């Protein structure tokens, strides 16, 4: 696009206002939090002063382990997005939309993108992803989700809401090369901007270049001049300001005549495309114009306007994540740990300095009394082990200066600093796996659960971000996924089976003969449901233990359930061999053996029934014979005796079954008691071993201390 100095100046003025109204303060905080997370926790002036004074500057980075635990908690719990039909939408379309979103997530590796965004939020208090349509691999367009550097996203300072729909504008500043501008915009602008050595206006360069994140350091990159040597235009020195802001405008909308719902029509839709959609809906949908806030998209570089059009999207492409949000104020975890971390470093360095000065406190020496060395040599070598000092006979012997005692409570300050880090971050020893050996497993599990509860708000805001992502995703899908497509997804079950889903496909209704669209994604409204589930590995471990426990107490758990939740490397193949591979010789032999066993069991049962029936018929024949010979009374007596005999036999069998059941229950109880006794013995052995190791470590430390004291006082004085 041509040079437009007034438009570029207008964009720059708004950027300066947004930058200087809070973003610069955020940059300072984010830069400091990044340095503390990396371990760069001392100021350069302080390090230089300590080095000059020959004093230690220790860095005990507790922040990275604390943040690692929080990140592990997030990775342990994954979210699943489900869509539910609303206002007459079809359930089949909602299910297809859920699968399309799963496809988008798999194509963009969304779990990793969420983890990086979450990490930025935890450390810097702000994390962002960008969500838009790309046409690199598919001419029809696909959703692309990428991470944004939170230092490069400048939010509307007048906004006070979490949702970007409540913001008036947002800037994304970036540094591009000539090749990037050629691909994204046009070659003429890239050639024009790459040929410049300095900017024509003040807005061509600002101080944000000094704190932007990259592989090279600002010192090394700042010395790289000579733009003429960059023949391939690969150096990223062109500053680009991308602004998305809202303006009032009359926009054409689709209107559902039955429900009254309205949806904006993309600005690039032609009349024939709109007419085709209206005809497809059979008069249910109409159009109307409405005054709304539309999104304008303007991109400038120096005084060149690279892009200035209406945005094709209903929402800003920027989606934020804030761990704690309070009316425009974003708060992370690291920023509140800076003070305790500095105290821990300074106190630990002071403790080490005191120990060093105790071992080398210095000497009091009479002038010209040393024979085998000078005073300067004693100053340099006085702390060596086994040093020998020789002095004149008439002189006073050298005397070691008594060092100052360690201040009382200095070691407690470092312990308090560590406790403050745990209390502020809500990350306890149980969550990090550092509990004492004598703490019960149930107590550790309970404390770990309570620690997870303390992070509920952080995870709740992450679910809010997931909701915004899914909401924007629906609008992108309904606006751009309008052509027939085949969506490929891979399920997360043990078999990892793939599935193809057809969307927006025309098909003739066999009942009416009319053409209808299967899984039409362009119509309907849907509710969004966000569910949190633990990682699959954790679920498998838990379910395997539960399934094995049920199997041990007699519940018939299928073998496939145990194998599916085990840690076997070829679980899918094993299950397939058990359930699906019926043509293999091994499987056929096994099935034949099972069939023969079942047939033998059925034949045995049938034989028992036949014997009992024959015995009953024989007894009835005898009874009838007795009735004929001895009369009806004797037959009735015999019949009564038989009934009593059969009743007694039945009661005996019932009692025998109850006895066997009690024996089985007692056997299970004994097995459980033996298992518990074995576990207690193992726990006691582990506690005794830990106690022995601790006593051995204490003895070793005492021995080392005695050795150091003996070495510090070694040598002889003459």
Compact description:
By secondary structure, the protein is an alpha+beta fold. It has 20 helices and 19 strands. The C terminus is likely disordered.
Name a few traits of the molecule.
single chain, six-stranded antiparallel β-sheet, three-stranded antiparallel β-sheet, 20 helices, 718 residues
For the largest beta-sheet, the strand count, sense and barrel status come to:
6 strands, antiparallel
Q: Kindly provide the radius of gyration, computed on alpha-carbon positions and rounded to a whole number of angstroms.
A: 40 Å
Gross morphology is: flat
Uncertain regions spanning at least 5 consecutive residues: 222-228, 712-718
> How far apart are the first and last residues' alpha carbons, in Å?
91 Å
Question: Residue-averaged pLDDT, rounded?
Answer: 79
- Enumerate how many helices there are, as a single number: 20
Helix vs. strand class: alpha+beta
Helix content percent band: 40-55%
Number of strands: 19
Strand content: 15-25%
What does this structure look like?
With 718 residues, this protein is an alpha+beta fold. Among the domains are: 23-76 and 92-155 and 322-359 and 410-474, no CATH class; 168-217 and 231-315, no CATH class; 535-580, no CATH class. The protein is 51% helix and 18% strand. The chain is built from 20 helices and 19 strands. The chain has helices at residues 5-38, 44-52, 63-76, 91-107, 110-124, 178-184, 187-194, 218-222, 271-280, 338-359, 375-381, 410-425, 429-432, 441-453, 456-480, 536-552, 559-564, 571-579, 585-630, 632-712; strands at 77-86, 127-134, 142-148, 153-155, 169-176, 238-256, 262-264, 285-301, 304-310, 318-321, 324-326, 329-331, 363-364, 399-400, 485-490, 498-503, 505-508, 515-518, 525-534. Strands 4, 5, 6, 7, 8 and 9 form a 6-stranded antiparallel β-sheet that branches. The chain has a 3-stranded antiparallel β-sheet with strand order 3-2-10. The protein has a two-stranded antiparallel ribbon with strand order 1-19. A hairpin with a 6-residue loop joins strand 17 and strand 18 (515-518). Helix 10 (338-359) runs antiparallel to helix 12. The longest helix has 81 residues, at 632-712. The radius of gyration is 40 Å and the shape is flat. It starts with a helix and ends in a 6-residue tail after the last helix. Mean pLDDT is 79; it is low at 222-228 and 712-718.
């Amino acid at each position: 696009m041509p040079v437009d100095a007034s438009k570029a100046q207008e964009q720059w003025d708004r950027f300066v206002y947004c930058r200087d109204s809070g973003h610069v303060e955020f940059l300072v905080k984010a830069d400091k939090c990044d340095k503390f997370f990396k371990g760069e926790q001392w100021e350069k002036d302080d390090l230089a002063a300590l080095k000059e004074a020959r004093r230690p500057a220790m860095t005990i980075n507790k922040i990275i382990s604390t943040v690692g635990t929080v990140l592990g908690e997030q990775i342990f719990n994954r979210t699943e997005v489900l869509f539910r039909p609303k206002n007459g939408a079809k359930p089949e379309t909602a299910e297809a939309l859920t699968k399309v979103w799963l496809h988008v997530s798999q194509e963009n590796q969304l779990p990793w993108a969420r983890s990086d965004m979450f990490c930025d939020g935890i450390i810097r208090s702000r994390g962002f992803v960008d969500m838009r349509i790309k046409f690199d691999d598919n001419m029809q367009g696909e959703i692309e989700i990428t991470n944004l550097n939170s230092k490069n996203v400048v939010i509307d300072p007048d906004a006070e809401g979490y949702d970007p729909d409540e913001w008036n504008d947002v800037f994304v500043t970036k540094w591009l090369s000539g090749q990037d501008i050629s691909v994204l915009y046009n070659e003429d602008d890239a050639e024009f901007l790459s040929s410049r050595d300095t900017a024509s206006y003040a807005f061509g360069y600002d101080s944000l270049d000094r704190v932007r994140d990259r592989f090279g350091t600002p010192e090394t990159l700042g010395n790289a001049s000579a733009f003429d040597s960059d023949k391939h235009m690969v150096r990223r020195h062109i500053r680009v300001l991308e602004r998305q802001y809202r303006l009032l405008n009359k926009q054409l909308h689709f209107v559902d005549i039955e429900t009254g719902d309205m949806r904006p029509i993309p600005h690039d839709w032609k009349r024939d495309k709109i007419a085709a959609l209206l005809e497809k809906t059979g008069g249910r949908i109409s159009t109307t114009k409405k005054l709304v806030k539309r999104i304008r998209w303007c991109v400038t570089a120096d005084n060149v306007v690279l892009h200035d059009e209406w945005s094709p999207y209903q929402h800003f492409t920027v989606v934020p994540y804030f761990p704690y949000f309070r009316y425009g104020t974003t708060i992370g975890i690291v920023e509140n740990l800076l003070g305790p971390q500095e105290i821990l470093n300074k106190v630990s360095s002071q403790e080490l300095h005191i120990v060093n000065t105790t071992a080398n406190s210095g000497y009091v020496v009479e002038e010209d009394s040393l024979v085998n060395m000078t005073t300067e040599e004693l100053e340099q070598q006085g702390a060596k082990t086994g040093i020998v000092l020789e002095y004149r006979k008439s002189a006073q012997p050298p005397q070691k200066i008594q060092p100052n005692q360690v201040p009382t409570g200095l070691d407690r300050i470092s312990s308090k600093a560590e406790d403050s880090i745990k209390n502020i971050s809500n990350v306890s020893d149980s969550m990090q796996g550092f509990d004492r050996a004598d703490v019960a497993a149930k107590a550790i599990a309970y404390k770990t659960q309570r620690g997870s509860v303390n992070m509920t708000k952080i995870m709740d805001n992450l679910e809010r971000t997931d909701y915004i992502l899914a909401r924007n995703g629906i609008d992108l899908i309904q606006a751009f996924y309008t052509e027939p497509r085949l969506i490929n997804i891979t399920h997360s079950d043990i078999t990892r089976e793939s599935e193809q889903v057809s969307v927006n496909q025309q098909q003739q209704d066999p009942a009416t003969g009319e053409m209808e669209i299967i899984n039409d994604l362009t119509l309907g409204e849907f509710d969004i449901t966000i569910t949190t589930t633990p990682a699959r590995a954790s679920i498998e471990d838990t379910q395997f233990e539960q399934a094995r426990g049920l199997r041990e107490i007699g519940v018939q758990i299928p073998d496939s359930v145990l194998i599916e939740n085990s840690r076997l490397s070829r679980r899918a193949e094993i299950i397939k061999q058990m359930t699906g591979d019926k043509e293999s010789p091994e499987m056929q032999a096994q099935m034949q053996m099972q069939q023969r066993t079942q047939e033998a069991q059925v034949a045995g049962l049938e034989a028992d029934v036949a014997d009992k029936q024959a015995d009953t018929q024989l007894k009835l024949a005898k009874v009838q014979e007795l009735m004929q010979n001895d009369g009806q009374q004797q037959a009735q007596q015999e019949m009564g005796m038989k009934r009593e005999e059969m009743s007694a036999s039945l009661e005996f069998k019932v009692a025998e079954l109850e006895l066997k059941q009690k024996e089985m229950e007692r056997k299970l109880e004994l097995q459980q008691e033996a298992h518990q006794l074995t576990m207690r013995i193992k726990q006691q052995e582990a506690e005794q071993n830990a106690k022995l190791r601790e006593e051995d470590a204490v003895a070793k430390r005492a021995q080392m201390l005695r050795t150091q004291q003996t070495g510090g006082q070694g040598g002889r004085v003459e």
